[in-house]
Amino acid sequence: MLNCIGYFLYVISINSFFLLLQIIAPFNKRAKQFVNGRRNIFSHISQALKGDTRKSIWFHVASLGEFEQARPVIEKLKIEFTSHKYIVTIFSPSGYEIRKNDSVADFIFYLPNDSNKNAKKLIALLNPELAFWVKYDFWFFYLNELKKQNIPTFLIDASFHSKQVYFKKYAVFYKNILSNFNYIFTQNKSSKTLLESIDILNVQTTGDTRFDRVYNALQVTENVDLINQFKGENLLLVLGSSYELEVQLLANYLAKYKSQKLKIIIAPHFVFEDQLVAIESILTEKIIRFSKANATLIANCDSLLIDNIGMLSKIYKYADISFIGGGFKPKGLHNILEAATFGNAIIFGNELDYFPEAIEFVKNEAAISVKNQSEFDLNMNILIANKDIRKKFGNNAQQQILENNGATEKIIDFISKAYLHLN
Predict the structure, then answer these.
(1) pTM of the model
(2) Full set of structural domains in the chain with CATH
(3) Mind listing the pLDDT tens digit for each residue in 239-265?
(4) Where does residue 368 fall: left (phi above 0), alpha (psi -120 to 50 degrees), or beta otherwise?
């Protein structure tokens, strides 16, 4: 009975969600991208795959962060299973628009809306021999159809928290969604324990593939001369994947504690024009957009506003301190690992329940979590004034990256041994 109730509530909720997106699309840029990107989606996929008879290995990701978690696994699998095509589906417009032309996969598509009909149709088109879900974004009809067709399906980089619905006694339907996976690779032991508590036993703790991804990136990150010139001999603070809240905290801080030796780069999570204008109005420092900057103009500016997507990982290379966005709302914190890779002293908000790696960073004095303006001000003053403390946090952050490498190899080792027949 509980399973049936859960099923009907799921169908109602997702249909309502997709309908709402269509209603608000004319007034909301992200909703418009979501709806327009899925228009004639099956014709687009069919045309793109036409004539390619190879079987596929399919990865599904929610957005950009999960795409980066998938990347090292895809790269390693392509070495092991050379005769397959690699397909990535993405749910979020922000992830798709940034990575739609990424060369790591042969094909990258939006995931069509979840329904029984769409699941059958998409799986027939993709013809996957293996399927991987990354971290979350569990769509019932797709996962259920994969199981019906006996297509081995894996969840990698899984991270669970006891407050999630899967671990409630009444949530039989959501527990059954997780049972569709043949095997689950978790980021941490606590997630494995939670899964075992609901009798999901095909689980192995392998760690977070993002550590592998950012470590590999450290070896090949290119220089950005204009950023280097902008920093000069000053300290550089980077606001990474920031929202207006983080910008406002910084503006409040600067109004009280202006430092002559501090340069600032803001890389907002959204780069729509209205967001950029809002940031410029909040931050009254001398600010210039990257698209308009040159060596002469940046000499007279205190702040640089990144008005494109894709530069942030290159910018952390020059930072001394990084303030990572999203940490003041549940489930909102953005990637802290890229900043850690380059030995930045890292600050973020206090909503960390769904981010075990952030909790570990704080525990190991590799990052600082703040809950309000006064805590932010205090810690910024310490990091700016005290080089030894700044370096300690940066070195500890970099050490966290080095100590947590290897998740990709563990996953690939398991898959290779279990599915040697695929090549």
Answers:
(1) 0.78
(2) 2-207+406-422 (3.40.50.11720), 222-403 (3.40.50.2000)
(3) 999 999 999 999 999 999 877 789 999
(4) beta
